[in-house]
């Protein structure tokens, strides 16, 4: 993620904060807004630290982003958010009925699955399903060629904190933390264009595969300000309940061509009981409760983590140059006239492949 654990470790390291743990608290029901949860007191970060420089820049640039500032300060404290989301105390021993976050924005609705019937970008994506599927099947037909042409093709969960995903879960990335991968976008141009045209509020976009007879163990993605969405691409025996996803105490199956939207800060797991590989197009999207200013402030934090010189550069010119480079990296890759290449360079080269969750 990615937005999840690996990034959180960078957050904590650069913010110079750790060590505060919390006992599980209790939310009264799913669909609960977490404004009533008691949080530890926070204070402004020291001004000459990386955390302090980021905080100062956020305050100068954005208005009404107190929740983002509190989230940043909680992370610096090492706050470990864990809250029970069941209906009553009799189910408190069910480990699936908890929200766990290291990166936590207060006051966001907790809900396992969200209704996509009124989500316009989800409807637009479903309408493009035949085009996306056809392109995916064509591009992945020759696996060896795809490996040679692409960047980080079918990378597994290599980090220790992502071990719950198992060896059967692999990804092919189109966007990471708001930055498009121009190499892979060129291999899947219709898919990338469909995502952009649909207006998906994406932080990450990637294909994910799950091998036959495999299971993703219960876990949290540890971030509550992004939700996860799947467009089911190629589901073995779709509609027979062999490929399932459980969020908290709710289980649904993937159906070809349909979009699901759910909260992976809640404990969740997945199963492929079939004898074929399952393929989805996966998104991390901003939580709908966030304001535009809050989304921009959170994206600014990601940019600073990708390129610390945005706030640590020795001169104003260096800081501005670094920020403009990050903005260019987040611009949708457009082909140059008369060229097969893309006009925006990726911040990640093939020689520095990422370990992904």
Automatic annotation (TrEMBL):
<dbReference type="InterPro" id="IPR007803">
    <property type="entry name" value="Asp/Arg/Pro-Hydrxlase"/>
</dbReference>
<feature type="region of interest" description="Disordered">
    <location>
        <begin position="335"/>
        <end position="357"/>
    </location>
</feature>
<keyword id="KW-0732">Signal</keyword>
<dbReference type="GO" id="GO:0051213">
    <property type="term" value="F:dioxygenase activity"/>
</dbReference>
<feature type="domain" description="Aspartyl/asparaginy/proline hydroxylase">
    <location>
        <begin position="126"/>
        <end position="288"/>
    </location>
</feature>
<feature type="signal peptide">
    <location>
        <begin position="1"/>
        <end position="17"/>
    </location>
</feature>
<keyword id="KW-0560">Oxidoreductase</keyword>
<dbReference type="InterPro" id="IPR051821">
    <property type="entry name" value="Asp/Asn_beta-hydroxylase"/>
</dbReference>
<protein>
    <recommendedName>
        <fullName>Aspartyl/asparaginy/proline hydroxylase domain-containing protein</fullName>
    </recommendedName>
</protein>
<dbReference type="InterPro" id="IPR027443">
    <property type="entry name" value="IPNS-like_sf"/>
</dbReference>
<comment type="similarity">
    <text>Belongs to the aspartyl/asparaginyl beta-hydroxylase family.</text>
</comment>
<dbReference type="GO" id="GO:0016020">
    <property type="term" value="C:membrane"/>
</dbReference>
<keyword id="KW-0223">Dioxygenase</keyword>
<dbReference type="Pfam" id="PF05118">
    <property type="entry name" value="Asp_Arg_Hydrox"/>
</dbReference>
